[in-house]
Amino acid sequence: MSQVIPEKPLRVVVWSTGTIGRHAIAGVDAHPDLELVGVWTSTPEKHGKDAGELAGLGRELGVKASTDRDELIALAPDCIVHGAMTDDRVFESIEDLTGFIRDGVNVVSSGPVILVHPKGTLPDEMIAGIDEAGRQGNASLHVNGIDPGFANDVLPLVLTSLSQRIDHVKVSEIADYSTYYQPVVMKDLFGFGQPLETKPMLWEPGILSTAWGPVVRLIAEGLGVTLDEPLQEYVDRRPAPRSVETVSVDVAEGTMGSVMFRVVGTVDGVPRVTLEHVTRTDAQAEPDWPRPLEGDGCYRVEISGEPEMKLEFTHHGEHGDHNVSGMIVTAQRLINAVPAVVAARPGLLTPLDLPLVTGRGLVSGAGR
Protein backbone atom coordinates (compact mmCIF):
# COMPACT_ATOMS: atom_id res chain seq x y z
CA MET A 1 0.00 0.00 0.00
CA SER A 2 1.26 3.49 -0.82
CA GLN A 3 1.11 6.41 1.58
CA VAL A 4 -2.19 8.28 1.93
CA ILE A 5 -2.41 11.89 0.71
CA PRO A 6 -5.57 13.74 1.85
CA GLU A 7 -7.35 16.01 -0.63
CA LYS A 8 -7.67 18.78 1.97
CA PRO A 9 -6.25 19.40 5.46
CA LEU A 10 -7.72 17.10 8.09
CA ARG A 11 -9.28 18.73 11.16
CA VAL A 12 -7.47 17.66 14.34
CA VAL A 13 -8.04 18.01 18.08
CA VAL A 14 -5.02 17.50 20.34
CA TRP A 15 -6.03 15.76 23.57
CA SER A 16 -3.72 16.96 26.40
CA THR A 17 -1.21 19.74 26.90
CA GLY A 18 1.45 17.87 28.90
CA THR A 19 4.78 16.31 27.99
CA ILE A 20 3.48 14.81 24.73
CA GLY A 21 0.53 17.12 24.09
CA ARG A 22 2.55 20.33 23.89
CA HIS A 23 4.75 18.77 21.19
CA ALA A 24 1.65 17.42 19.44
CA ILE A 25 0.20 20.94 19.22
CA ALA A 26 3.41 22.17 17.59
CA GLY A 27 3.51 19.15 15.28
CA VAL A 28 -0.07 19.50 14.06
CA ASP A 29 0.42 23.24 13.52
CA ALA A 30 3.51 22.53 11.39
CA HIS A 31 1.90 19.82 9.25
CA PRO A 32 0.51 21.01 5.90
CA ASP A 33 -2.07 18.21 5.73
CA LEU A 34 -3.55 18.95 9.17
CA GLU A 35 -5.51 21.79 10.75
CA LEU A 36 -5.63 22.29 14.53
CA VAL A 37 -9.25 23.01 15.51
CA GLY A 38 -9.30 22.19 19.22
CA VAL A 39 -7.27 21.28 22.30
CA TRP A 40 -8.39 19.44 25.43
CA THR A 41 -6.84 20.02 28.84
CA SER A 42 -7.51 18.40 32.19
CA THR A 43 -6.30 21.52 34.03
CA PRO A 44 -9.02 24.11 34.78
CA GLU A 45 -6.41 26.89 34.86
CA LYS A 46 -5.55 26.18 31.22
CA HIS A 47 -9.16 26.38 30.03
CA GLY A 48 -9.50 29.25 27.55
CA LYS A 49 -5.77 29.71 27.03
CA ASP A 50 -4.41 29.78 23.50
CA ALA A 51 -2.84 26.56 22.24
CA GLY A 52 0.26 28.39 21.05
CA GLU A 53 0.90 29.66 24.57
CA LEU A 54 0.41 26.21 26.08
CA ALA A 55 2.82 24.68 23.56
CA GLY A 56 5.44 27.36 24.21
CA LEU A 57 5.45 28.50 20.58
CA GLY A 58 5.75 32.20 21.41
CA ARG A 59 2.72 33.03 19.27
CA GLU A 60 -1.02 32.50 19.35
CA LEU A 61 -2.73 29.93 17.14
CA GLY A 62 -6.28 31.20 17.59
CA VAL A 63 -7.37 27.91 19.18
CA LYS A 64 -8.41 27.91 22.83
CA ALA A 65 -7.97 24.93 25.14
CA SER A 66 -11.08 23.44 26.72
CA THR A 67 -11.89 21.07 29.57
CA ASP A 68 -15.22 20.19 27.91
CA ARG A 69 -15.13 16.83 26.08
CA ASP A 70 -18.49 17.25 24.35
CA GLU A 71 -17.61 20.74 23.13
CA LEU A 72 -14.57 19.33 21.32
CA ILE A 73 -16.42 16.33 19.89
CA ALA A 74 -19.07 18.77 18.57
CA LEU A 75 -16.34 20.32 16.39
CA ALA A 76 -16.58 17.11 14.31
CA PRO A 77 -12.81 16.69 13.95
CA ASP A 78 -11.45 14.10 11.55
CA CYS A 79 -9.05 12.86 14.19
CA ILE A 80 -7.95 13.21 17.81
CA VAL A 81 -4.24 13.12 18.58
CA HIS A 82 -4.39 11.72 22.09
CA GLY A 83 -1.33 12.19 24.32
CA ALA A 84 -2.89 12.15 27.77
CA MET A 85 -1.40 10.04 30.57
CA THR A 86 -2.83 6.50 30.47
CA ASP A 87 -0.29 4.41 32.41
CA ASP A 88 -2.15 4.86 35.70
CA ARG A 89 -5.69 4.50 34.26
CA VAL A 90 -5.45 1.85 31.56
CA PHE A 91 -9.04 0.59 31.42
CA GLU A 92 -10.57 4.03 31.97
CA SER A 93 -8.56 5.35 29.02
CA ILE A 94 -9.68 2.43 26.86
CA GLU A 95 -13.26 3.49 27.61
CA ASP A 96 -12.38 7.08 26.66
CA LEU A 97 -10.85 6.06 23.33
CA THR A 98 -13.66 3.64 22.54
CA GLY A 99 -16.14 6.45 23.18
CA PHE A 100 -14.36 8.73 20.71
CA ILE A 101 -14.52 6.25 17.84
CA ARG A 102 -18.11 5.34 18.70
CA ASP A 103 -18.87 9.06 18.34
CA GLY A 104 -17.34 9.00 14.86
CA VAL A 105 -13.91 10.51 15.52
CA ASN A 106 -10.73 8.71 14.46
CA VAL A 107 -8.02 8.52 17.12
CA VAL A 108 -4.24 8.15 17.21
CA SER A 109 -2.96 7.74 20.76
CA SER A 110 0.26 7.21 22.69
CA GLY A 111 -1.50 4.87 25.10
CA PRO A 112 -2.51 2.70 26.69
CA VAL A 113 0.34 0.69 25.22
CA ILE A 114 -1.57 -2.56 25.61
CA LEU A 115 -3.54 -1.49 22.50
CA VAL A 116 -0.44 -1.41 20.28
CA HIS A 117 -1.25 -5.07 19.59
CA PRO A 118 -3.79 -6.38 22.11
CA LYS A 119 -4.36 -9.85 20.63
CA GLY A 120 -3.17 -12.39 23.19
CA THR A 121 -3.10 -9.81 25.99
CA LEU A 122 -6.64 -8.44 26.23
CA PRO A 123 -9.72 -10.69 26.20
CA ASP A 124 -11.08 -11.30 22.71
CA GLU A 125 -14.45 -9.87 23.71
CA MET A 126 -12.85 -6.57 24.76
CA ILE A 127 -11.04 -6.28 21.43
CA ALA A 128 -14.29 -7.12 19.63
CA GLY A 129 -16.04 -4.38 21.61
CA ILE A 130 -13.52 -1.77 20.42
CA ASP A 131 -13.92 -2.95 16.83
CA GLU A 132 -17.71 -2.80 17.13
CA ALA A 133 -17.50 0.78 18.45
CA GLY A 134 -15.37 1.65 15.42
CA ARG A 135 -17.92 0.14 13.06
CA GLN A 136 -20.74 2.04 14.78
CA GLY A 137 -18.90 5.34 14.35
CA ASN A 138 -17.08 4.43 11.12
CA ALA A 139 -13.84 5.46 12.83
CA SER A 140 -10.45 3.94 13.59
CA LEU A 141 -8.16 3.76 16.62
CA HIS A 142 -4.39 3.40 16.39
CA VAL A 143 -2.07 3.34 19.41
CA ASN A 144 1.65 3.74 18.83
CA GLY A 145 4.65 5.93 19.54
CA ILE A 146 8.35 5.18 19.83
CA ASP A 147 8.47 2.48 22.56
CA PRO A 148 6.19 0.61 22.57
CA GLY A 149 5.93 1.67 18.96
CA PHE A 150 8.10 2.35 15.94
CA ALA A 151 11.44 1.42 17.54
CA ASN A 152 10.23 -2.06 18.36
CA ASP A 153 7.61 -2.81 15.72
CA VAL A 154 8.00 -1.19 12.27
CA LEU A 155 11.77 -0.64 12.52
CA PRO A 156 12.76 -4.26 13.34
CA LEU A 157 10.20 -5.71 10.94
CA VAL A 158 11.56 -3.60 8.07
CA LEU A 159 15.08 -4.75 8.93
CA THR A 160 13.98 -8.40 8.78
CA SER A 161 13.14 -7.86 5.10
CA LEU A 162 16.90 -8.22 4.50
CA SER A 163 17.07 -11.63 6.18
CA GLN A 164 17.60 -15.02 4.58
CA ARG A 165 17.12 -16.82 7.90
CA ILE A 166 15.95 -15.43 11.24
CA ASP A 167 16.99 -17.15 14.46
CA HIS A 168 16.24 -14.38 16.95
CA VAL A 169 15.08 -10.75 16.95
CA LYS A 170 16.05 -8.56 19.90
CA VAL A 171 14.87 -4.98 20.33
CA SER A 172 16.28 -2.79 23.12
CA GLU A 173 15.91 0.61 24.68
CA ILE A 174 19.08 1.70 26.48
CA ALA A 175 18.64 5.06 28.15
CA ASP A 176 19.47 7.44 30.98
CA TYR A 177 16.13 8.57 32.42
CA SER A 178 17.53 11.30 34.68
CA THR A 179 16.03 14.04 32.47
CA TYR A 180 12.75 12.24 31.79
CA TYR A 181 9.97 14.25 33.43
CA GLN A 182 7.20 11.89 34.41
CA PRO A 183 7.04 11.59 38.22
CA VAL A 184 4.22 9.03 38.28
CA VAL A 185 6.08 6.70 35.89
CA MET A 186 9.48 7.18 37.50
CA LYS A 187 8.52 6.91 41.16
CA ASP A 188 5.26 5.00 41.33
CA LEU A 189 5.51 2.61 38.37
CA PHE A 190 9.28 1.99 38.11
CA GLY A 191 10.08 2.64 41.77
CA PHE A 192 13.18 4.76 41.23
CA GLY A 193 14.35 6.33 44.49
CA GLN A 194 12.37 3.79 46.52
CA PRO A 195 13.84 1.06 48.76
CA LEU A 196 14.63 -2.08 46.75
CA GLU A 197 12.26 -4.10 48.92
CA THR A 198 9.43 -1.90 47.64
CA LYS A 199 7.62 -3.73 44.83
CA PRO A 200 5.83 -1.35 42.45
CA MET A 201 3.12 -2.89 40.29
CA LEU A 202 5.35 -2.90 37.19
CA TRP A 203 7.48 -5.68 38.68
CA GLU A 204 4.59 -7.94 39.61
CA PRO A 205 4.43 -11.13 37.50
CA GLY A 206 2.60 -10.61 34.22
CA ILE A 207 2.65 -6.81 34.18
CA LEU A 208 5.68 -6.50 31.89
CA SER A 209 4.02 -8.93 29.47
CA THR A 210 0.93 -6.74 29.57
CA ALA A 211 2.86 -3.52 28.87
CA TRP A 212 5.57 -4.69 26.44
CA GLY A 213 4.29 -8.12 25.46
CA PRO A 214 2.15 -6.58 22.70
CA VAL A 215 5.24 -5.55 20.71
CA VAL A 216 6.79 -9.00 21.16
CA ARG A 217 3.57 -10.54 19.82
CA LEU A 218 3.37 -7.96 17.00
CA ILE A 219 6.88 -8.83 15.79
CA ALA A 220 5.99 -12.52 15.96
CA GLU A 221 2.82 -11.95 13.94
CA GLY A 222 4.77 -9.93 11.39
CA LEU A 223 7.15 -12.89 11.05
CA GLY A 224 4.37 -15.46 10.89
CA VAL A 225 5.21 -17.40 14.05
CA THR A 226 3.10 -18.45 17.02
CA LEU A 227 4.72 -17.91 20.42
CA ASP A 228 4.56 -20.16 23.43
CA GLU A 229 2.42 -18.87 26.28
CA PRO A 230 2.99 -17.30 28.66
CA LEU A 231 5.78 -14.94 27.62
CA GLN A 232 8.88 -15.04 29.83
CA GLU A 233 9.90 -12.12 32.05
CA TYR A 234 13.28 -11.25 33.57
CA VAL A 235 13.97 -8.32 35.93
CA ASP A 236 17.26 -7.13 37.46
CA ARG A 237 16.92 -4.07 39.73
CA ARG A 238 20.07 -2.45 41.10
CA PRO A 239 20.69 0.06 43.94
CA ALA A 240 22.07 3.52 43.15
CA PRO A 241 25.84 3.60 43.84
CA ARG A 242 25.54 7.29 44.79
CA SER A 243 22.81 9.85 45.40
CA VAL A 244 21.58 11.69 42.31
CA GLU A 245 18.83 14.19 41.54
CA THR A 246 16.64 13.64 38.50
CA VAL A 247 13.92 15.92 37.14
CA SER A 248 11.25 13.50 38.38
CA VAL A 249 12.56 12.01 41.62
CA ASP A 250 15.59 12.21 43.91
CA VAL A 251 17.45 8.89 44.04
CA ALA A 252 19.34 8.34 47.30
CA GLU A 253 22.31 6.00 47.47
CA GLY A 254 21.11 2.44 48.02
CA THR A 255 17.59 3.02 46.70
CA MET A 256 16.54 1.70 43.30
CA GLY A 257 18.68 3.44 40.69
CA SER A 258 18.73 1.18 37.62
CA VAL A 259 16.77 -1.67 36.11
CA MET A 260 17.21 -4.11 33.23
CA PHE A 261 14.21 -6.16 32.17
CA ARG A 262 13.27 -8.47 29.32
CA VAL A 263 10.08 -9.89 27.86
CA VAL A 264 10.87 -12.97 25.78
CA GLY A 265 8.75 -14.82 23.27
CA THR A 266 9.74 -18.43 22.64
CA VAL A 267 8.74 -20.97 20.00
CA ASP A 268 8.93 -24.58 21.22
CA GLY A 269 11.02 -23.31 24.13
CA VAL A 270 13.57 -21.49 21.97
CA PRO A 271 13.82 -17.68 22.36
CA ARG A 272 12.80 -16.02 19.09
CA VAL A 273 11.74 -12.45 20.01
CA THR A 274 13.14 -10.42 22.93
CA LEU A 275 12.24 -6.96 24.20
CA GLU A 276 14.88 -5.52 26.54
CA HIS A 277 15.05 -2.27 28.51
CA VAL A 278 18.18 -0.98 30.21
CA THR A 279 17.16 2.05 32.26
CA ARG A 280 19.49 4.14 34.42
CA THR A 281 18.99 7.28 36.49
CA ASP A 282 22.78 7.77 36.66
CA ALA A 283 24.70 7.49 33.41
CA GLN A 284 27.75 6.15 35.26
CA ALA A 285 25.92 3.30 36.98
CA GLU A 286 26.10 -0.38 36.02
CA PRO A 287 29.10 -0.26 33.65
CA ASP A 288 28.62 -3.98 32.88
CA TRP A 289 25.20 -3.38 31.30
CA PRO A 290 24.72 -2.40 27.62
CA ARG A 291 25.39 1.23 26.71
CA PRO A 292 24.61 3.33 23.64
CA LEU A 293 27.43 3.71 21.13
CA GLU A 294 26.93 7.47 21.47
CA GLY A 295 24.86 9.86 23.55
CA ASP A 296 22.63 9.08 26.52
CA GLY A 297 20.06 6.85 24.89
CA CYS A 298 19.36 4.61 21.92
CA TYR A 299 17.12 1.96 20.44
CA ARG A 300 18.92 -1.12 19.18
CA VAL A 301 17.76 -3.91 16.88
CA GLU A 302 19.78 -7.14 16.74
CA ILE A 303 18.84 -9.92 14.34
CA SER A 304 20.60 -13.27 14.64
CA GLY A 305 20.53 -15.50 11.58
CA GLU A 306 21.79 -15.12 8.05
CA PRO A 307 23.05 -12.48 7.81
CA GLU A 308 23.75 -11.20 11.35
CA MET A 309 22.48 -7.60 11.63
CA LYS A 310 22.60 -4.83 14.22
CA LEU A 311 21.06 -1.36 13.95
CA GLU A 312 21.35 1.44 16.50
CA PHE A 313 18.89 4.32 16.32
CA THR A 314 19.47 7.52 18.31
CA HIS A 315 17.67 10.84 18.53
CA HIS A 316 18.45 14.12 20.24
CA GLY A 317 16.42 17.29 20.63
CA GLU A 318 17.51 20.41 18.76
CA HIS A 319 17.06 22.39 21.99
CA GLY A 320 17.03 19.54 24.52
CA ASP A 321 18.20 16.03 25.27
CA HIS A 322 17.06 12.58 24.17
CA ASN A 323 14.15 12.59 26.62
CA VAL A 324 12.79 15.78 25.01
CA SER A 325 13.16 14.33 21.54
CA GLY A 326 11.57 11.13 22.82
CA MET A 327 8.37 13.07 23.39
CA ILE A 328 8.67 14.66 19.94
CA VAL A 329 9.15 11.39 18.05
CA THR A 330 6.29 9.82 20.02
CA ALA A 331 3.98 12.68 19.01
CA GLN A 332 5.17 12.78 15.41
CA ARG A 333 4.77 9.06 14.81
CA LEU A 334 1.10 9.58 15.66
CA ILE A 335 0.68 12.88 13.81
CA ASN A 336 2.24 11.61 10.59
CA ALA A 337 -0.03 8.55 10.73
CA VAL A 338 -3.24 10.61 10.90
CA PRO A 339 -4.02 10.56 7.14
CA ALA A 340 -3.52 6.79 6.97
CA VAL A 341 -5.65 6.15 10.05
CA VAL A 342 -8.47 8.41 8.82
CA ALA A 343 -8.49 6.55 5.50
CA ALA A 344 -8.30 3.06 7.06
CA ARG A 345 -11.05 0.57 7.85
CA PRO A 346 -12.95 1.22 11.08
CA GLY A 347 -11.89 -0.41 14.34
CA LEU A 348 -8.60 -1.09 16.08
CA LEU A 349 -5.48 -0.83 13.89
CA THR A 350 -1.94 -2.08 14.46
CA PRO A 351 1.12 -1.01 12.43
CA LEU A 352 0.59 -4.13 10.32
CA ASP A 353 -2.70 -2.62 9.09
CA LEU A 354 -1.26 0.70 7.88
CA PRO A 355 0.49 1.70 4.66
CA LEU A 356 3.84 3.48 4.57
CA VAL A 357 3.88 6.44 6.97
CA THR A 358 6.42 9.17 6.20
CA GLY A 359 7.16 12.79 7.09
CA ARG A 360 5.55 13.94 3.85
CA GLY A 361 5.25 17.74 3.67
CA LEU A 362 7.74 18.43 6.49
CA VAL A 363 10.90 19.13 4.49
CA SER A 364 12.10 22.62 5.49
CA GLY A 365 11.34 25.24 2.88
CA ALA A 366 9.85 22.75 0.44
CA GLY A 367 6.24 23.89 0.85
CA ARG A 368 3.34 21.49 0.40
From TrEMBL:
Locate the Dihydrodipicolinate reductase N-terminal domain: which residues? Answer: 14-81
Keyword Transferase tagged: no
Keyword Cell membrane part of the UniProt annotation: no
| Highest taxon, organism lineage | Bacteria
Domain (2,4-diaminopentanoate dehydrogenase C-terminal): give its ranges. Answer: 152-357
Keywords (alphabetical) are: NADP, Oxidoreductase
Concerning SUPFAM superfamilies, the annotation shows: NAD(P)-binding Rossmann-fold domains
Q: What is this protein called?
A: Diacylglycerol kinase
Source organism per UniProt: Nocardioides panacisoli
